[in-house]
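Two quick folds needed for the group meeting slides. Do the first one here.
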Amino acid sequence: MSIMQYNGGSVIAMVGKDCVAIASDLRLGVQSLSISSNFEKIFPVTDRLYIGLPGLASDVTTLREQFRYRVNMYTIKEEREIEPQAFAQLVSSTLYEKRFGPYFIEPVIAGMQKTPSGSYAPFIAATDLIGCLNFAKDFVVAGTASEKLFGVAEGLWEPDLEAEDLFETISQTLLNAVDRDAFSGWGAIVHVITKDKIVILSSSAFISPGLGLAS
């Protein structure tokens, strides 16, 4: 078994129309033994930027604190919030520094990038465990259910999805993919990010219609 599969878990990010979403399962396991069903894999960076960290659980905690420190240092030095594009480069360089003894994490980044005109555009990216960046205009995936996520997302994703439709699409993609993966599952959490707000919904909300994203 690969060390990347030891604790399980999967993350996906998707682009919509003036919005972006990132979602993960909630399982923490030791190979096929489930330990917890509320293990966080998605963390806020700024008000409009989130990072998902699927992989080895101990490295999730280490990298979360590493990124928090470096983002705080950037904010102090530059006197402004870090933008998603700059944060993606920071993630890449942080991982590449440890390329000879890498962190066993494949980060997924999702946020709203400020444009020169002052508006916001959706931004997603992912890296491998030594920091090679993958930018996309539709979706990016990582974790033990990656192949299933790719397959389902290819069939469900459409361009210019509104926030409500994007939530439905990313939720169905994640839930259907982790149902076919023994190392992911046990619930899910979705973050839908727009220029004005962030809506966070856990698996307990998926059973109820009328999610209030338009309010």
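Then this one, please, same format:
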Amino acid sequence: MDIKDLKTLIKMVTETDITEFDMENADEKIVIKRGRGQEVIHVTSPQNYSPQTQMMAPQAAAVPSAAPAPPVAPAAVVNDKHETITSSIVGTFYASPSPDSPAYVKVGDVVEVGQSFCIVEAMKLMNEIEAEFKCRIVEILKANAQPVEFGDPLFLVERL
């Protein structure tokens, strides 16, 4: 799909009430998701790693307003009562949306499904880490503006 077709598709989705659009054919897969004031677009092509085919393979054009999907933080079981919410990407941990805003969560807060725990910034993109289940914050394991690696524990929670 060329950039003109992709822009037309994005415009069509943004002008309707559609929140998610998926299209796949033999050459590519396109996923467009809308919600929380952010639009997400994924375009993938089959990966052939020989130098010859890489030069000939069409590359998906980047759309300036598109951002990658916020990753979902996997939860690892710590014990019977507590689970760990971990970082699904490498980046910088931020407890609040801006320096002068209150933190998304604090110890003792009950977090609902889909509610944000924090932001992990990766390459100037702010990725919200959201709750996959209702839980209570037992401990916050990272300090604000601290670097995190993939799989680093961020929060200790109690599933409700």
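Slide caption for protein two: The first strand starts at residue 20 and ends at 24.
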